[in-house]
Design a protein that fits this description.
This protein is mainly α. Among the domains are: 5-106, no CATH class; 117-188; 191-288, Serine Threonine Protein Phosphatase 5, Tetratricopeptide repeat, CATH 1.25.40.10. 63% of the residues lie in helices and 3% in strands. The termini are far apart.
């Protein structure tokens, strides 16, 4: 006889009893007189009849045995007389026991009458749920095995529902479909409410894909969504800003004859605005506003805020005017309008709306003040920003981080750096954690006051606070590096930015070019320019201006000229910064006439020169000794109402140097002082240079003595001019004393200063002293330049020191320096080598403008 059945129960709440075969005839002795072959089928029939009446128990048929759930308490009562032919099985994963305790028939009958408690049924359902859910979550399980598992354990309706909920949060679509198929097969009550609950649940937990997935299964079970289900799924996808999906669902809802309510259409409208889908959002707004109930204040506020964020003030005002009496404007409405005015840089409109809302009795909130403060930035009204900040606190409205950030940004934008830093500190003292905007603004403020190190400290605090730096933060840091000591840090920041995955924008590239322009690194600036073009971004006016300025600082006038023409060919109109840079380009190239042509072109284009442009044009003329033209430009500048600055007066004074017009230079100096302009070392050195050129040595010394009283400290250029002034009159002792004084004041002489003192010694006939200073210069680690060697060779020529001249010539050649024409003429004879130069330097080939090989190598001289 084959296997008949098994009573099965997990070990946690009971045991399983499996009957594989009836007892053998020879083993009946242990049963006593009450057991017989006739009793076995009767007992088995009684068992099945009893268990089928218990709703909480399940029967699962598989292979050649039957598994019956049996409570632990019942099994305990049954265990004392359990026969060896019944095996106890803890669960499917555990090995089946070969034999168990003996069971008598009377005990078995008592056990079959056992009624499981509610808690036991609940425990049984929980175990089934956990077991099936674990199987369904197995990533390697197939759809067929999912179905078999569900059939094997036959979970209840409640368990199946809970499985769908749990599986939905992990995105197990196939498993959910298997559960739904099982529920249909079991004819569980899957109705519209069933789907409605799940769509609502997943929508609330932002699982919009799962909400939509279950929504789409409704037709496959013969159900059509109701208005409520449509609304739930539309709101779920709208909350995730899935505008296209929301619009598609709304169309389906309308096509099926359903009527979406205002909150549903409002949710879709909000999603459209978040995704910049203006046209469908406006159509929904119009439909709502023309509907029987009309649009609510919330709907109007949404569209006003949308226009406000884009600075489209007039359109925001139009929507505001369309608001009916029922939809009363509130604080959100007015705050959005003020924000629109702020973005549109219309301070009067913002202030007007602020007054209107107060007249309507609507109290402003922190967002209102933040927007209004931001609006003051357009006109640089930083004092108004501070007044509004104080006003809101007086009204009992506590400023938020956004409010403080707005104030700091306004102060930074107008260069009131100290105040910006103070407000930032006030914010931290108030216990508020700065946001990225506040950190960016204060970093810019520290840059303005020349405290780049503090800006980097702020960057460290930003990172320590857990905030993620954005492109504006990195741009601020790069701008802080536009100094002689910090410029290399810009490259480090740029590399960090790229490693962090922050994509550089146009401002990033422009800032980098500006950093390299500041330190005259035009090659690096050009490299960043090429990166900018490779990035797909289009250079703007600021980009071109920065690159032209970099070429101007690097004295690359041809490159600057090419860039200037290229930007015009690209349709970018030069501004005053561009023209000022181009005038400076030609000024440095000593092309004063071209500089004036650009200056005239600028005015023809209707662009008025500023003080920088005028100063550059004056300098272009003065640099080549065109002092009359420079003076005429200066007079024209005054006539046009442009006030000269220190740079202007420096350029004018410089123009008088070549002709030694010291009276005119002194007059310009006095005008500058009368204008209340504070002199710097550059203008002071220019005036000393004019005195030196005019032979006014005593006047030069007297002026330098008074420089400290003007707050200006003489530098190496000042002393070099004084030494040259002494040289003119052969005052080598005074020149030497001046040189010594410079060193005593710990002003390190440069190559120019050494050249001047050596020249003064040579002029005074002090050759040995000149040679001594030459060696001193080399000992100081300074490399002689062409002027140094040409001067020394000239000295040797006058003194007849031919051998020493050849030594200087050899050193000069070794350093790749070019001799002067007089030196070449002295050391050569009609293009041939001077015998005295034989073996030390070769000859100078005037045609190739280079040194030829040594004579003994080329011509075999010995």
């Amino acid at each position: 006889m084959g296997s008949v059945g098994a009573l099965y129960m997990p070990a946690a709440s009971g045991l399983a009893v499996q009957c594989n075969a009836p007892p053998a005839a020879g083993s009946m002795a242990g049963l006593g007189n009450n057991w017989s072959w006739g009793f076995y089928p009767v007992l088995l029939a009684s068992t099945f009849a009893t268990l089928s009446a218990c709703v909480a128990w399940s029967i699962c048929w598989h292979s050649s045995s039957t598994t019956l759930w049996f409570p632990q308490t019942a099994v305990s009562a049954l265990a004392p007389g359990l026969h060896s032919s019944w095996a106890l099985v803890p669960n499917r994963r555990s090995p089946r026991l070969a034999a168990g305790p003996q069971l008598g028939p009377a005990t078995a009958e008592a056990a079959l009458d056992y009624e499981p408690t509610r808690e036991e049924r609940k425990q049984k359902n929980l175990q089934v749920f956990e077991k099936v859910l674990m199987e369904l979550r197995n990533p390697s399980i197939s759809v067929e095995d999912m179905a078999k598992t569900l059939d094997m354990y036959s979970p209840s309706f409640t368990s199946c529902s809970k499985m769908i909920s749990d599986l939905g949060h992990t995105g197990s679509n196939d498993a959910i479909l298997s559960v739904l198929d099982f529920m249909r097969k079991m004819q569980y009550p899957i109705d519209q409410r069933f789907f409605s609950d799940f769509v609502w649940e997943f929508g609330r937990s932002r699982k919009w894909r799962m909400a939509l997935f279950l929504f789409d299964q409704m037709p496959f079970v013969g159900l059509q969504p109701t208005d409520k289900i449509f609304a739930s799924v539309i709101k779920a996808v709208s909350k995730a800003n899935q505008a296209d999906t929301a619009l598609e669902l709304l169309d389906r809802m309308l096509a099926q004859g359903h009527s979406p309510d205002a909150p549903t259409m409002g949710a879709v409208m909000k999603a459209c605005l978040a995704r910049q889908r203006e046209q469908p959002a406006v159509e929904l707004y119009q439909r709502l506003s023309l509907g029987p109930e009309g649009a609510s204040t919330v709907i109007y506020n949404m569209l006003i805020s949308f226009y406000g964020r884009k600075g489209r003030l007039q359109e925001a005002l139009q929507v505001f005017r369309e608001m009916p009496a029922e939809a009363k404007p509130d604080v959100v409405t007015y705050s959005a309008l003020i924000h629109a005015a702020a973005v549109a840089r219309d301070l009067p409109a913002a202030m007007g709306m602020f007054e209107d809302m107060q007249l309507e009795g609507i109290k402003p909130n922190p967002h209102t003040y933040s927007s209004l403060i931001k609006a003051t930035e357009s006109e640089g009204q930083w004092r108004t920003a501070l007044e509004l900040h104080a006003q809101m606190q007086k009204a009992g409205i506590r400023p938020t981080v956004v409010t403080y950030s707005a104030v700091i940004s306004v102060l930074d934008s107008v260069g009131v750096a100290e105040q910006a830093i103070e407000v930032f500190n006030e914010m931290t003292r108030a216990g508020l954690d700065p946001d990225v905007v506040a950190y960016t603004a204060v970093m810019n403020a520290y840059k303005r006051v020349g405290q780049s190190e503090r800006a980097f400290q702020m960057y460290g605090k930003l990172q320590a606070s857990g905030l993620t730096p954005d492109v504006c933060v990195y741009n601020a840091l790069i701008s802080c590096c536009a100094t002689e000591t910090q410029w290399k840090n810009a490259e480090v920041v740029f590399a960090d930015m790229q490693r962090a995955g922050v994509k550089p924008d146009l401002t990033t590239y422009n800032s980098l070019i500006n950093v390299y322009e500041t330190v005259s690194e035009w090659e690096r600036a050009l490299g960043i320019w090429n990166q900018l073009k490779d990035s797909g971004l289009k250079p703007d006016l600021i980009s071109y201006n920065a690159l032209i300025s970099a070429f101007e600082k690097g004295v690359q006038h041809e490159q600057a000229e090419h860039t200037f023409r290229m930007m015009q060919a690209k349709g970018i109109t030069p501004d005053v910064v561009t023209y000022s840079a181009m005038v400076s380009v030609y000024e440095k190239a000593r092309r004063w006439q071209t500089a004036l042509q650009v200056f005239a072109e600028m005015r023809q284009q209707g662009i008025e020169p500023n003080v920088l442009t005028w100063s550059a044009a004056i300098s272009a003329c003065g640099r080549v000794g065109q002092w009359v033209q420079a003076f005429e430009l200066f007079r024209s500048m005054l006539a046009y109402g442009v006030e000269p600055n220190v740079v202007t007066y420096t350029a004018l004074i410089d123009s008088y140097e070549k002709e030694g017009l010291w009276q005119r230079a002194l007059e310009a100096w006095q005008e500058m002082q009368a204008a209340g302009l504070k002199p710097n070392d550059v203008v002071c050195n220019s005036l000393v240079s004019v005195f030196r050129s005019a032979g006014q040595t005593d006047l030069a010394f007297s002026f330098v003595e008074g420089m400290p009283s003007m707050g200006v400290t003489p530098d190496v250029i000042t002393y070099s001019n004084l030494i040259r002034a002494c040289e003119r009159w052969g005052q080598w002792q005074r020149a030497e004393a001046t040189f010594d004084e410079m060193k005593q004041k710990r002003i390190a002489p440069d190559v120019m200063a050494y050249n001047n003192i050596m020249s003064a010694m040579i002029t005074g006939g002090q050759i040995d002293r000149a040679i001594g200073y030459f060696h001193e210069m080399q000992d100081a680690g300074l490399a002689p330049d062409s002027y140094t060697y040409n001067m020394l060779i000239g000295m040797c020529e006058k003194g007849g020191q031919w051998e020493q001249a050849c030594v200087f010539l050899h050193d000069m050649q070794a350093q790749g320096l070019t001799p002067s024409e007089s030196a070449i003429k002295y050391l050569t004879m009609d293009g041939t080598v001077n015998p005295l130069a034989n073996g030390v330097g070769g000859w100078w080939d005037a045609e190739d403008n280079a040194w030829g090989p040594a004579a003994d190598e080329e011509q075999g001289w010995s």
